[in-house]
């Protein structure tokens, strides 16, 4: 009984760990994991393993400020360059849209989504290719270094581009081979752009609609196999990054098992980084700075066609992973398991004035090692930001106790030290999520919760009254004020019946595992066991006097 929960959590059996980032060539490929298998695997990770993540690169961080030279260009040359360039770009896009509209006159939206354009209609779109190059020229991309050339559709029906980082990525490819695109459905709501989107027979995806995603997957499976269409251009990362790494590839480009041609993008820059990331400047600011540059640089490499092996054809995730590693090797970039889901976390952080550099956790790892959903991760991020009052991306012990309403007692310090894996005296987001999710996993098992609930349910009625709650909490947290106790109780009492039932107790335990941890820690301490047993005996009405206080710590050791 004398061993504490923090000791148990940090001294689990140490399992062998596979490296998070395999080498880029001749590696053991990762196979996709089913939901059930992932759940079993996540519960097998120890506390140390859950903290052994690789966070060397954040693909959404944007750390480049505006130099004095940039401000000089904006102030002196901006009033001249920006209006002229912007007018020419808008005029070009309108012209391209009018050409696109003419090429699809008389066709319904259904026809455009289900049938390839006839040869004469597609020949009408040749001016669009020239206009795409003009848009790049007017944006300052006068010379573009191109290596290789697009493969015929008969050889590679799918083009995969990475890293996707700017608004300019697609224009050269449109000029080179006028492919079909894959894009979010919101683009059809933009005037003039919608005609172009329909003309190139874009596969539209509504990420918020599962039914739309299912239809898009069907299109992605059928489009490369149907004659009459041009090649299909896909950005498998699914979002823009800062080009510091390649994040995880979505499987859509690889589900047919068809050969793909990788396309590599580079934007060598000296004064302004044009990356459009969720942790960086907004699009208007990026456009302003880009148009103020005397010259912008772009390099494009059409790689040799990647022909999948029989094993890759039967395993879409394996195929996607191997193509990513091949592209990363040619780019000399690392790979990370960040994904589109990390964008939501970045957006949440930015909206709450927290730098995305503080998000030193990949959702992929959190999901597979801690068994949490995206909604869980977003809730924990919101809570982390609430506790991190100065928004520096780190939680001090003072912030931890004051915001969470915890008393400054040895058990609370022990909890903080348990979460503070590197013993720095500060909690980062990774330690906060991994620590609390680990504790929550240990404590929210059905049998553990039943026994913990019995500690509070002194009357044995299946409900915890305010008096019962106050009695236990005062023993565990003697410094909590009456108003703080009432606040905790009322937040847990969802149906406002002046009692906490078991379901409400479970919800409270999952949302605030640190409170349940401290109750259990109190019961685990032999110096407190007798006092707690006396409390339980006073209201057991025939139940075993110390069953709850002794069995609960034993369960945590399992």
Write the layout of secondary structure elements.
Blueprint (H helix, E strand, L loop, with lengths): L4 H6 L24 H10 L2 H4 L17 H9 L1 H26 L5 H6 L4 H5 L2 H13 L5 E4 L10 E5 L6 H9 L2 E5 L8 H7 L3 E3 L4 H13 L9 E3 L25 E7 L16 H9 L6 E5 L7 H5 L1 H16 L9 H11 L11 H8 L3 H14 L7 E2 H8 L5 H10 L6 E2 L1 H15 L2 H11 L6 E3 H11 L5 H11 L6 E3 H10 L1 H12 L1 H12 L9 H10 L2
Parallel strand pairs: 1-7, 2-5, 2-6, 3-4, 3-5
Antiparallel strand pairs: 6-7, 8-9, 10-11
How would you briefly describe this protein structure?
The protein has helices at residues 5-10, 35-44, 47-50, 68-76, 78-103, 109-114, 119-123, 126-138, 169-177, 193-199, 210-222, 283-291, 310-314, 316-331, 341-351, 363-370, 374-387, 397-404, 410-419, 429-443, 446-456, 466-476, 482-492, 502-511, 513-524, 526-537, 547-556, and strands at residues 144-147, 158-162, 180-184, 203-205, 232-234, 260-266, 298-302, 395-396, 426-427, 463-465, 499-501. With 558 residues, it is of the alpha/beta class.
């Amino acid at each position: 009984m004398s061993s504490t929960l923090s000791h148990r959590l940090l001294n689990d059996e140490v399992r062998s760990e596979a490296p998070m980032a395999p080498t880029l060539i001749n590696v053991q490929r990762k196979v996709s994991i089913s939901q059930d298998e992932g759940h079993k695997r996540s519960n097998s990770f120890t506390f140390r393993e859950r903290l052994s993540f690789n966070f060397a690169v954040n693909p959404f961080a944007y750390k480049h400020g505006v130099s004095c030279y940039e401000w000089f260009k904006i102030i002196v040359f901006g009033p001249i360059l920006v209006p002229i360039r912007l007018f020419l770009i808008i005029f070009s896009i309108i012209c391209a849209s009018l050409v696109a509209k003419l090429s699809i006159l008389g066709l319904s939206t259904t026809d455009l989504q289900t049938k390839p354009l006839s040869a004469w209609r597609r020949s009408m779109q040749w001016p669009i290719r020239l206009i795409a190059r003009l848009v790049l020229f007017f944006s300052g991309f006068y010379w573009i270094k191109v290596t290789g050339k697009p493969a015929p559709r008969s050889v590679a029906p799918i083009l995969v581009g990475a890293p996707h980082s700017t608004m300019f990525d697609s224009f050269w490819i449109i000029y080179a081979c006028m492919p079909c695109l894959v894009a979010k459905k919101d683009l059809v709501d933009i005037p003039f752009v919608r005609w172009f989107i329909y003309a190139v027979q874009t596969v539209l995806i509504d990420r918020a609609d599962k039914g739309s995603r299912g239809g898009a997957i069907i299109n992605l499976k059928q489009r490369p196999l149907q004659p009459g269409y041009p090649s299909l251009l896909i950005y498998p990362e699914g979002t823009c990054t800062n080009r510091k790494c390649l994040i995880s590839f979505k499987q859509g480009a690889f589900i047919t098992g068809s050969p793909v041609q990788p396309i590599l993008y580079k934007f060598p820059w000296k004064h302004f980084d044009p990356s459009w990331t969720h942790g960086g400047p907004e699009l208007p600011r990026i456009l302003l700075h880009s148009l103020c540059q005397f010259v912008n640089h772009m390099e494009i490499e059409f790689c040799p066609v990647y022909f999948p092996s029989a094993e890759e054809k039967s395993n879409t995730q394996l195929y996607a992973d191997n193509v990513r590693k091949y592209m990363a090797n040619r780019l000399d970039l690392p790979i990370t398991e960040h994904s589109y889901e990390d964008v939501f976390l970045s957006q949440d952080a930015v909206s709450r004035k927290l730098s995305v550099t503080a998000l030193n956790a990949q959702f992929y790892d959190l999901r597979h090692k801690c068994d949490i959903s995206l909604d869980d991760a977003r809730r924990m991020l919101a809570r982390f930001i609430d506790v991190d009052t100065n928004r520096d991306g780190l939680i001090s012990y003072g912030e931890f106790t004051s915001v969470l309403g915890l008393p400054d007692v040895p058990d609370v310090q022990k909890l903080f030290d348990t979460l503070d894996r590197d013993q720095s005296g500060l909690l980062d987001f990774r330690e906060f999520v991994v620590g609390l999710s680990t504790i929550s996993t240990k404590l929210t098992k059905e049998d553990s919760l039943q026994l913990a609930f019995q500690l509070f349910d002194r009357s044995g009625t299946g409900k915890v009254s305010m008096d019962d709650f106050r009695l236990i909490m005062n023993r565990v947290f003697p410094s909590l004020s009456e108003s703080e106790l009432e606040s905790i109780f009322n937040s847990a009492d969802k149906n406002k019946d002046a009692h906490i039932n078991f379901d409400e107790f479970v919800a409270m335990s999952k949302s605030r595992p640190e409170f349940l941890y401290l109750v259990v820690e109190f019961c685990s301490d032999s110096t407190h066991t007798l006092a707690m047993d006396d409390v339980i005996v006073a209201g057991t009405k025939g139940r075993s006097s110390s069953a709850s206080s002794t069995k609960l710590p034993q369960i945590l050791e399992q």
